[in-house]
Amino acid sequence: MIEVKEVEKKFGRKKILKDVSFTANKGEITCLIGINGVGKTTLLNAIMALTPINNGEILIDGEPVKEKTFEKISLIPDALTMIPNMTIEEAMEFMNDFYTSWNRERAEELLGFFRLNKNDRISSLSKGNTAKVNLLLGLALDVDYVLMDEPFSGIDMFSREEIANVFTSHLIENRGVIITTHEVNDIEHLIDKVVLLDDGMVTKEFDAEKAREDDGMSVIDVMREVYQG
Ligand SMILES: Nc1ncnc2c1ncn2[C@@H]1O[C@H](COP(=O)(O)OP(=O)(O)OP(=O)(O)O)[C@@H](O)[C@H]1O
């Protein structure tokens, strides 16, 4: 389980995260929702210990992040960080050399799943295919937790659909996934848990399935209630 406890984060004098607490379980998709600039990326970076926090605590399976933690958690940023001149295959080789947790078989499977050509250069890829390569590189790591920053942002409907299909496939099964987004339309049916962020705090944390079954409310209905009163 990922436990975020009373986390506070300042940039200079500006308090971005004031008091953020939530949990994300293995085998579930947790969605962090909030408007642009609310601090979603900062929160993912904090979980990965890529940015220091000013207060609070973050635990992965009951322990603070240490070197070994990176063998069980990966962050897929909102942009691909590979050298543009590389082919997809070279990027995969690079990952293989760099990470002991790289799973060649899963990488090949993802390549087929996304119908990507491994001889294509990264610089020549469409936005949708770039997003897919980015996901491939993160999902092919054998880790328990995957953090994804806006995986659906700025890409066409068909690519979004293909990416959404990954979430219901065995390629995700049993892992704990945290996704950030400011639009839930495409992925509403995939989400197990929702964490709504506003003004540096968690305004609501709820089980999406339970809201559907018990109250007949979609994630968007709950958001409307919280944000518009
Ligand atoms: N390194 C930094 N130094 C100073 N301010 C920063 C830094 N990184 C982020 N911020 C500020 O922190 C706030 C939260 O940024 P963050 O990128 O975490 O938001 P977000 O919710 O992910 O937004 P978006 O949906 O636009 O990606 C923004 O006001 C941003 O300008």
Automatic annotation (TrEMBL):
Residues 2-224 form the ABC transporter domain. The keyword Cell inner membrane does not apply. One of its GO terms (molecular function) is ATP binding. It comes from the Bacteria. PROSITE patterns: ABC_TRANSPORTER_2. CDD domains: ABC_DR_subfamily_A. Keywords: ATP-binding, Nucleotide-binding, Transport. SUPFAM superfamilies: P-loop containing nucleoside triphosphate hydrolases. Transmembrane segments: none annotated. InterPro entries: AAA+_ATPase, ABC_transporter-like_ATP-bd, ABC_Transporter_VariousFunc, P-loop_NTPase. The keyword Cell cycle does not apply. PANTHER family: ABC TRANSPORTER ATP-BINDING PROTEIN ALBC-RELATED (PTHR42939). This is ABC-2 type transport system ATP-binding protein. The lineage of its organism: Bacteria, Bacillati, Bacillota, Bacilli, Bacillales.
